[in-house]
Amino acid sequence: MDTIYLGNSGLRVPKYILGTIPFSGTNGFEAAGDVKEDEARRMVDMALDAGINMFDTANLYSEGDAEKVLGAAIKGRRDQVLLTSKTGFPIGDNPNARGASRNNILRSIDESLERLGTDYLDLYFVHLWDGQTPVEETVETMDNLIKSGKIRHWGVSNYSGWALAKTHTYAKMAGFIPPITQQIYYTPEAREAEYELLPAGTELGVSSMIWSPLGEGLLNGKIGRGKEAPENTRQGAGWGEPWVQDQERLYDVIEALEEVAANHDASVPQIAYAWVRDRPNVGPVVIAARNEGQLKENIASFDIQLTQEEHDRIESVARPAPLYPNWHRAMNSPEMGTPSEINYLKKYRKSMGIDD
Questions:
Q1: For 205-242, what is each residue's pLDDT tens digit?
Q2: CATH of domain 3-307
């Protein structure tokens, strides 16, 4: 497993990270999976054997129970692993137990540390943008957590491009430690992150960590045109996310993945992971699994090398429309884009019928 630096930091992380949303499966997360402690321990073993030593969780997942399962699975080997967690989503009725306020962050970090059985996190995320809390309060609180030793680094998740830039710029200008990564949704079908988030991350020195590259189960290889999701899958069990912009386009993407998968004697999820892994501006990729068999298959995707033709086949199916100012820039001044933007601008030109 390759390792990479996480953003503008000295922290090296594996290209694949194991996500734990299937751990526990309680408190509204039953559809995501029900991995209990013994199986979670074996899955951690498998990940470590493959060179995956980073594990991603959140206080939201099963309302803390996923953290407890992960904590039990890594017990006795904290020095071998990198741990992340997140806070921000409302949990319970307490109006202060949500968002990116100092009150919530300080409460949440202590609760997460206790559930995970550790005294620090390697990476701590604000799980969603909180437009009601001053960004100064969030940045200062995270900076203090680093200086107190409770966290090593911090990041944000599900921010817009301007919110990421505002947060990072304030931290730098005020002399505080900025976020080193953003965790964002990006799949072969859901490509909105290409508009701003992926290039912004590269320009700011903020690594783009991808969550749910399989589209929260949409690209599990069991769904397609005329094929409904089986009941024993997240989508078949009534999971509410994600929003799909165009159902027919989703099926077109799945068919392209199936075509490429046949070339490699691989599965649709494996090809989706391999495609996202190799995309411009993409940092670590969070993989997940409901059982050991799925985890073995997903880890094996790291060894799949797609040809440029295969990359292009998948890319062309769901290429984002060149929304303004992208169509204007692609039409008139694509050469003035930064290196992080050039690839996208060239594709917009193709969509506009401009033959270079």
A1: 999 999 999 999 999 999 999 888 888 889 998 898 99
A2: 3.20.20.100
Tokens of 253: 């993407």
DSSP letter at 217?
A: T
Say which of 61, 186, 273, 344 is annotated catalytic. 61
Letter string b/e over residues 31-55, b meaning 16 or more CB atoms within 10 A of that residue's CB: bbbbbebebbbebbebbbebebbbb
Q: Which residue type is seen at 333?
A: S
Which of helix, strand or coil describes residue 151? strand
Question: What's the rounded Cα separation, in Å, for the pair 249 and 226?
Answer: 14
Q: Given this model, what pLDDT does residue 355 score?
A: 77
Q: Does residue 251 carry a catalytic annotation?
A: no
Residues 6+ apart with CB under 8 A from 103: 96
pLDDT tens-digit map of 264-284: 999 999 999 999 999 999 999
How many C-beta atoms surround the C-beta of residue 295 within 10 A? 24
- Condensed to tens digits (0 to 9), the pLDDT of residues 171-195 reads 999 999 999 999 999 999 999 999 9
Give me 142's structure tokens.
């995270």
pLDDT of the residue at 166: 98
* Residue carrying structure tokens 């005020």: 174
User: How far, in Å, CA of 312 to CA of 131, rounded?
Assistant: 38
pLDDT value of position 120:
98
Domain ranges of the chain: 3-307, 321-356
